[in-house]
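Title: Prediction job returns without error message
Component: structure pipeline
Severity: low
Priority: P3
Assignee: unassigned

Description:
Job completed but the reporter wants confirmation the result is attached to the right record. Sequence as submitted:
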Amino acid sequence: MRRTGTYTTSTTLGEAVKAFVPLPLPPNKPALAPACFEAGNRAAGLALARLSGVSGLVPSVDWLLYSAVRKEALLTSQIEGTQATLVDLFDDEAGFAIGNSDDVEEVTNYLRAFRLVQDNLRDPAGLPINVRLLCEAHRLLLDGVRGSGKQPGELRRSQNWIGGTRPGKAAIVPPPAERVADLLADVERFIHDDPAPQLPPLVKVALVHAQFETIHPFLDGNGRIGRLLIAALMEHWRLLPEPLMYLSGYLKQHQSAYYQHLSAIRTQGDWEGWVGFFLEGIAAAASEAERGIVAIASLIAADRRRLLASPKSGPASYRLFEALPTMPRFTVELARQALNTSFPTANAAVRLLEDLGIVSELTGQKKNRSYSYQTYIELMTR
């Protein structure tokens, strides 16, 4: 059996525990055999290529990014117990009253952290993927929400544990706090200095995510930052031109297997099982995103034809329709702001889309009415 780390005695809450310290990447003695990842890597790569290609079916990739990034934010948060829904997120952005505002705030914090990382990676003067960038993302992630008292933006300074009501009953005890910075520096070197040129980038993404989760460098939010790191590495290694895939949907659906494979690296030296699972997840998530884009493109094309065929349609209604995929819940005032026009013009545009059955009114009131691009939302929430 391959050895993937060592155990060291650590003390927390007055209990001595065996903390696991992972060996640096890549796996060795033995190294990963190409036979364990070649077929999975090929399938995942083809699925990503198809996803990239099909994104051209819609006039604006921003439409796709709006929903894809929010689905990833929502699903990665749901893995950690957040109860918010995609409709909650849309309603919050529209300014509607929502019941579980705390959960929605956790999701919007993830969106802020994601944008911070993406902006840095796309800015020639921005930070690369490193500990400082991850800490800044972590600070945004925990800002003002559950976990805000657990050193946001800072590597932990104490021993943590995973599972169990006390350290001695823990399922996993990550490395002692004093080892965290050096272990993350090893991960940085693996990302940027390419010590394993024979490994495909997708395999390296799998290795880095697992290593990050094993190190568990923060007191809270490790899972979400670790999955955000997947998206960052996909960008870093140019595996997908835009973050159109929501891998957390697959990981949530197979949450037990996700955790079991990560644990088996530590307990059984089974990097191969984890890499295979991860590549299957990439292929499945990319294929699901591809199907979603085809469905969205079909819906928008059909609704656009309906609008163009109406003798009452005009520039304001066209422009409002083009805004709907990034404003699926809205009021007339939001429509007025989006169109930068007068209230009567915006109201007439909304009324036309309602008459055509493209949007529906939610309140049944004569004033302060709210609207929904419901068929689009239903596609998003399948």
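Comment from assignee: result matches the submitted record. The chain has a mean pLDDT of 93.
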